[in-house]
Amino acid sequence: MIITIIHISKSTLMKTKFFLLLIVSSFLFGSLSAQENDVMYVHYINVGQANAALLEFPCGAVLIDAGAQDKATTQHLIDYLDDFFARRKDLHRTLDLVYVTHCHLDHNAALAAVADSFKIVRYIDNGQQTGSGKTNQLKLEREAAARGIQYATYPYETITNGGNKKGLTNMIIDPIKCETIDPKIILYSGAFTTKPATGWTKDDFENNGNNHSLFIKVLFGKASFLFIGDGEIAEMNTVTNYYNGTDALDVDVLMVGHHGAKNATTHNFLDAVTPNYAVISCGQWDDSTSGGKFNTYNYGHPTDSALNMLAAHVPYKRSHPITVKAGLKAKTFIDVTVSKRIYATPWDGDIVIRATSDGKYRTQLSSN
Ligand SMILES: [Zn+2]
Fold first, then answer.
1. Is residue 24 assigned to a domain?
2. Residue 48 forms part of a structural domain
3. 146, 186, 201, 365: least CB-packed within 10 angstroms?
4. What's the 272 CA to ligand 1 centre distance in angstroms?
5. C-alpha to C-alpha distances, 310 to 20, 112, 327, nearest whole angstrom
């Protein structure tokens, strides 16, 4: 081929080179884009006793929670996003949407740092103005217009208006539409404006922001993910009962509620979800200093009871069993062996799940 080119005229040679370059680049682009267009990643970023999950699509990015416990975990989140956008230059350091599932610091402490470091196009929170994350939440709500951010909030009653059981979606809740695939982002729960008639104490409703978490489902072809913030038994039971008989909560990958606490995982809920993978975000078991009293040691996360329940529902095994610390109760931990596909930031570090639109998954763990 090269000999042939040497023996042709210079202009023909230039044209031929250009033509060959076109063939090669279109081949490379074709294969690359064909691969990339069919793949999404969920990055469960290790922010200690807190939550932050980055959805990476072929044509955009969404952050679900911007939690952190201290300066170090805030910096890790910013560094992680910096590295991500350095790799995905096509996204221009832009988060198409940031969700905060509920108004607690471990879900929004790094919100201002994220907003100062990256472009946010849309911002959705649960609209509550109480709880440890109140200052951060109100600050971004107030600054949204000046920063060019579209702010919206959808209470449970709006999501379920008129007996709707299909969840709520629109261009703000789901702004992602790629050339060859249109992922779906759907809300199934949010803050409750009125106390549900059954199953809620006054305290569940008035003083526990966890029970007002957004429930967010992400569909990428046949791949599916669920995020439920820190929704506890009251919200979990209401939502499970409401969507009973539908596939609303049925996904492959569950981000476990409330950092693996014992009050945010039930057999009924897991029957509805039927997870193949479970991911828990919390700190190291012996972390008794970060976040003041809000640390993993004081909470006993993840709890032995939640791990046992998940192990009963998750069908597949990890590549290798792992011995970890699980909380029996606050400040009391035991050694347990996890053999199912239950991943957690304290023992797996940053957890990345790669999904293709035909519903195949691959896990990458930063601890490996
Ligand atoms: Zn939390």
1. no
2. no
3. 146
4. 22
5. 54, 34, 15
